Amino acid sequence: MNANEKKKILEEKISNFNQNDSGSLHHGIFGLPFNVEESKVILVPVPWEATVSYGEGTALGPKAILDSSQQIDLYDPINPNGWREGIAMQDIPSSIFYKSKQVREKTINYLNGYNDKQIDKKLQEEINNDCKELNDYVEETTKKLINDDKIIGLVGGDHSSPLGYIKALSEKYNNFGILHIDAHCDLRDAYQGLEYSHASIFFNALKIKNVLKLVQVGVRDFCEQEKDLIEKESKRISLFTDYEIKKDIYNGKTLKKKFDEIIKELPRDVYISFDIDGLIPYLCSNTGTPVMGGFTVEEIIFLLEGLVSKGKRIIGFDLCEVAPGKDQWDGNVGARILYKLCLLTLKSQKK
To answer: 236 in helix, strand or coil?
Structure first.
């Protein structure tokens, strides 16, 4: 199917679609009628949580977000007609979900010995290899979509999930920055001996030379090893802790001015990595590692709108660590953030 044929099919679907109706279960993410081939933004679900070190449930995040997304009204002043460019989610891969459960059992057994200082090197190597296979799968999956000129949003899963995607982006872009919103730095070197731990995602991402700058926002829980790395790599890593941001505001600096300082640290092309625990815990009460403090959704959207207004181009994004718990609240919040990420990304591409 050529580009003109795709455009014609997309226009026909839009003309036959009532955006004012509630989402149809027969449609896809956000109740939209588009498939992957027709859409500009493709959401890649990665139901993986093999190395989580505290609460579980993030592997259920993509399904919870998909289910909750049907209740979202499509009109949004951020980008009112953005949905018309096509947003679709790939099928949630059950093979990855069940593989994650198997590897998670290995991890629990491994950590029991690790905490007793009886490290099972063979099991450690097995888990590291399993996680590498996941990274390879994500890299290959996203690379194909990038080659088809798609914009990708990865939906985790724990925060180890996007590493393969960041690698795939590095083959297209000579350099780009990462805007990382999180309660944690995730800069640990092989946390608990696991090379691809969710707590090591940005230690690993910094090994990719095309990652020009890592700007971390809202962090409120990090260790001395991470602090030392940030100081050592001060030209490449900029840390804006929750404490620093709030302190400046309490002393009279406007939020806009503070956010402008953050945006200034980033190059033109920006990848957004959003861990849901960057928010105030009542917005993500079931996430794996909640920390008191954090942002409201409105504050984060204000930051991202500022990013776009300054001419930055969002080249991709992830949303990770959404765990549904016993109700639909976390999935609801996650779905609404995901929709805004899609709209802002599309808007930034037109700048």
So the answer is: coil
Where is average pLDDT lowest: 13-27, 61-75, 316-330? 13-27
How many residues does this entry show for the chain?
A: 351
Q: Which domains does the chain have, with CATH numbers?
A: 3-349 (3.40.800.10)
Dist CA 262 CA 241 (whole Å):
11
| 104 token code pair | 């998670």
The C-alpha atoms of residue 205 and residue 202 are separated, in whole angstroms, by 5
The answer to whether 126 and 289 are in contact (CB under 8 A) is: no
How far is CA 92 from its chain centroid? 16
pLDDT at 1 over 70: no
CB 211 within 8 A of CB 166: yes
Q: What pLDDT is recorded for position 26? A: 66
> By C-alpha distance, which of 350, 304, 344 is closest to 83?
344
3-class SS of residue 272: strand
Could you read off the pLDDT of 76-115 as tens digits, one per residue?
999 999 999 999 999 999 999 999 999 999 999 899 887 7
Based on its alpha-carbon atoms, the radius of gyration of the chain, rounded to whole angstroms, reads 20
Question: Please, what is the average pLDDT of the chain?
Answer: 94
Q: CB neighbours (10 Å) of residue 240?
A: 18
Which is it for the CA torsion 188, 190, 195, 197, positive or negative?
A: negative
